[in-house]
Amino acid sequence: MQPNVNLENVEALGAEEVLSVVLSAGPGPRACVTCSFQAEDMIVLRMLKARLPEIPVLFLDTGYHFAETYQYRDRMTKEWALNLTNVLPKNTVKQQESLLGILHRTDPTQCCQLRKVEPLMEALGHFELWFTGLRREQSPTRRNLKKVEQHRLPGGKTLLKVSPLADWTWAQVWEYTGANSLSYLPQYDEGYASIGCQPCTAIPEDPSNPRSGRWNGKKLECGIHTFSERAE
Ligand code: SF4
């Protein structure tokens, strides 16, 4: 059962307060957090772990991540004793490439659909509360993100999507990371600003749009934050 949260009132609250309000509003809804191990996700994860040490952490394991991302995932999973689920597509990379070719070159939308959107849709069906590290500043496509939104999955189920860092700036992310001595993905030190699958991630040419380095600038979203419909 979903918690009963006044969606308008939470907009003015800070990240920790948003979590407190959402988590105290309902009778123990099943909660999860999606995590690509980027800096924002580690902040949300740290805040959540203090309240829900066993929260399921969903990592979309496309098989195309940087080796450094897998190494960091494994290290943080051990150090933070994460309850990690690697959400897997139906086919391995090898199987998909032999069946359909190198989709991230020919049809990245289909590749993201098969390796991210469909596995996540299925995984989210088990939860009522979905925490994310999304921020409005990350991309023009996220400008209207609210801290707490009702989302309807394609199957009809509605869940509460909570993005406590929605109004954080890039500077705030790094202030928090430094102040709390959080480790971070090594690719940031090379100039990457938004880190996903290796073939679809580059150092952004437009510093004002950190996700412009994704998919060679051809698209800004993989679909995991657009497949569900906001239920007003
Ligand atoms: S980000 Fe690229 S490699 Fe990853 S699932 Fe999407 S198209 Fe495929």
Topology summary:
Elements: H1 15-24, E1 31-34, H2 39-51, E2 56-60, H3 67-79, E3 83-87, H4 93-100, H5 103-106, H6 108-124, E4 129-131, E5 148-152, E6 158-162, H7 170-179, E7 229-230
Parallel strand pairs: 1-2, 1-4, 2-3, 4-6
Antiparallel strand pairs: 5-6, 5-7
Bound molecules: iron/sulfur cluster (SF4).
Explain what this protein looks like in three dimensions.
With 232 residues, this protein is of the alpha/beta class. It has one domain: 3-Layer(aba) Sandwich (Rossmann fold). Helices cover 32% and strands 12% of the residues. It has helices at residues 15-24, 39-51, 67-79, 93-100, 103-106, 108-124, 170-179, and strands spanning 31-34, 56-60, 83-87, 129-131, 148-152, 158-162, 229-230. Strands 3-2-1-4-6-5-7 form a seven-stranded mixed beta sheet.
Short description:
The protein has helices at residues 15-24, 39-51, 67-79, 93-100, 103-106, 108-124, 170-179; strands at residues 31-34, 56-60, 83-87, 129-131, 148-152, 158-162, 229-230. It is an alpha/beta fold. Iron/sulfur cluster (SF4) is lined by residues 62, 64, 104, 108, 111-112, 115-116, 196-197, 199-200, 222.
Dominant shape: globular
Structural class: alpha/beta
Oligomer: single chain
| Sheet with most strands | 7 strands, mixed
Molecules bound to protein: iron/sulfur cluster
Secondary structure: helix percent: 25-40%
- The CATH superfamily is known as HUPs
Counting H and I runs of at least 4 residues, what is the number of helices? 7
